[in-house]
């Protein structure tokens, strides 16, 4: 990757691994210090949070890879201490199902639930190698012709720490919004990786599906688009190297919209699919 | 609708309403007798089960309409008594989030969890009327040129009670499988309604997304395709009249596939979107 560090970080020994690592407190209960490094305008990124919950469930369940994980976002998470409580719903030979919730202490000293997830885990390495994918990889210009989020004439107000930790190279044809000329199409495409060069794994895929600017920007909406619910299917262990992420919105109506993400790996495999329901909050 | 009963059933007073009605046993706990009328080859239909859980949550939460509901299917449900336990996760002004599980007693007298769902509810009637949908309704031939599932030369072995309760008129271009010549495309399209003429509501949409033959049939797979996880977004209260359902599979790989459903109402609105992850179990 063009901007990767000269020494690439390894899976298990990288910024992303350290910042999503959960510590077992007692059976099924994990502590985590949510890093301020994965925020955008002060809000902790939803994909980072999903990776944290995903790692807790990988420890609590007999299977280690998220196959399908659904998250409902309840209240806004803050950087700082949090606790993840897991519940094993069912264990099976091929799949196990678990539930997890992330809690934080609010300013009044009350424990508040931030996110609840339900997920089924398996072993991606055990899957047969058959592929009958009819979907085609997104066409994104070469990295050199794409743009960093920091290249925007109007950088995100309040700063966004997360962009320092990501390798994002946005397709210029989905960047009309940054020049004040949104295309009107609900599309966003980008190359995706981790800035320290760590290769992708299933947990990085949970991050990838929620890391691009909202498609709503290209629909001419400049407000906040908080996620209500996000479901990710991880379909294959990603090959090393940069990912391509394509996000599409086809139904903006009634103040809500869906964002469908596809994540393709360097071997041209569709390694993850996601859909989220988000609310449109117009800026005042 | 062509085959509707001469007197159309009304919402609240129909077969579907009676068969999904839950009875409050104690706060948050509901009894239901799962009807054998919504089975296919003996298995209770996943969309019918989702409607049952959806109705329990509508009672338990302060909001009545499912906006996004995610179900993980754990074990196969049987017709007969079941209990639904609900948990209010968070109540808000616009959205409330709840969890529900359906349990049955197995042959050994143990209580077994069949399905667990996580859902956020709101009030569809309160949504603004803005629509900026870029998706287009599926093109399905007129009802008279479409086919009942019963028209297949090889009717489903073991019978399928559910088809008697549905108004399904399948697009002949997605019925190659029924003639032994699957198209190789992961597509299935149909007109959809309830056989007694009851108009659709949000709970009928939960049924609609999982009522067509599996797209896997058109991919040449004749085995069983059990749902692992199903998430439905209900985006609008459906207009009266028949619905059009379009299901697409783009990624059959590693023994799993996704099914994406779109449900369009008679007013050409995209009223529901769903995605499920299903397992391919080849018949022996």
From TrEMBL, chains A, B:
InterPro entries: ACOT8-like_C, Acyl-CoA_hotdog, HotDog_dom_sf, Sec_Metab_Biosynth-Assoc, TesB_ACOT8-like_N. This is TesB-like acyl-CoA thioesterase 3. SUPFAM superfamilies: Thioesterase/thiol ester dehydrase-isomerase (SSF54637). Residues 152-280 form the Acyl-CoA thioesterase-like C-terminal domain. Residues 36-120 form the Acyl-CoA thioesterase-like N-terminal HotDog domain. It comes from the Bacteria. Pfam families: 4HBT_3, 4HBT_3C.
């Amino acid at each position: 990757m063009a901007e990767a560090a000269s020494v690439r970080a390894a899976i298990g020994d990288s910024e992303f691994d350290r910042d999503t690592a959960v510590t077992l407190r007692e059976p099924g209960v994990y502590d985590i210090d949510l890093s301020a490094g994965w925020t955008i305008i002060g809000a902790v990124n939803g994909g980072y949070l999903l990776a944290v919950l995903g790692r807790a469930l990988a420890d609590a369940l007999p299977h280690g890879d998220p196959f399908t994980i659904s998250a409902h976002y309840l209240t806004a998470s803050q950087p700082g201490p949090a606790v993840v409580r897991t519940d094993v719903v069912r264990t099976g030979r091929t799949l196990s199902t678990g539930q997890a919730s992330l809690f934080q202490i609010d300013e009044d000293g009350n424990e508040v639930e931030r996110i609840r997830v339900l997920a089924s885990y398996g072993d991606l390495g055990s899957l047969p190698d058959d592929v009958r994918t009819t979907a085609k990889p997104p066409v994104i210009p070469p990295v050199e012709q794409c743009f960093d989020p920091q290249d925007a004439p109007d950088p995100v107000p309040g700063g966004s720490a997360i962009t320092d930790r990501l390798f994002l190279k946005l397709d210029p044809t989905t960047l009309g919004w940054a020049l004040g000329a949104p295309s009107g199409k609900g599309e966003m495409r980008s190359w995706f990786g981790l800035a320290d060069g760590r290769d992708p794994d299933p947990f990085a895929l949970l991050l990838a599906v929620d890391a691009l600017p909202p498609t709503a920007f290209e629909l001419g909406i400049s407000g906040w688009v908080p996620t209500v619910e996000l479901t990710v299917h991880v379909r294959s262990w990603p090959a090393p190297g940069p990912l391509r992420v394509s996000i599409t919105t086809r139904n903006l109506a009634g103040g809500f919209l869906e964002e469908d993400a596809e994540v393709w790996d360097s071997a041209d495999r569709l390694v993850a699919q996601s859909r989220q329901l988000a609310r449109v909050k117009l800026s005042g």
